Amino acid sequence: MRDRRPVPSTLVAELTDVLEWRLTQAAWAGVAEALDELARALPGGDRRRIEEAQDSLAFSGPIRLRTRLGDDPAVPPPEDIRERVNRLIHDLESDDDRDAD
Question: How many CB atoms are closer than 10 A to CB 74?
Fold first, then answer.
C-alpha cells in the first residue's frame, strides 16, 4: 500500500545543497546512485521509498574529515549530476504548484 503523504519538505533544500557539495569523483558516483533511487521513487509517491532514497543521498554527501596529501581531490558536482538535481528540483516544485491549484 502506498503512503500518499506529500514528499518531505526538506527534499528540495537537500537537493539544492548537493549543488554546493565538493566530493571526490568516486563519491559523486554514490550520489548518482542515490539520485537514481530518488528518481524511481518519486513518480509512485511511495513515501517510504522516497525517504530511503533521501537518506541514501544524505549519506552520500560530504563528511568533515581532513584530507591528506595524495588523496583524490574534492570537486564540485559534475555537469550530469547538476542537471539531474535541477530536473528533480523542477519536478518537485512543479508538483507543489499543481497541488496548490
Answer: 14
Give the burial string for 38-73 (b: 16+ CB within 10 Å, else e).
Answer: beebbeeebbebbeebbebbeebeeeeeeeeeeeee
The Cα 43–Cα 87 span in angstroms is: 13
Enumerate the H helices of the chain as residue ranges.
10-18, 25-41, 47-60, 79-100
What percent of the chain is modeled with pLDDT above 70?
Answer: 81
- pTM score: 0.82
Helix axis angle, 10-18 relative to 47-60, nearest 10°?
Answer: 30
Cα(18)–Cα(81) distance, integer angstroms: 9
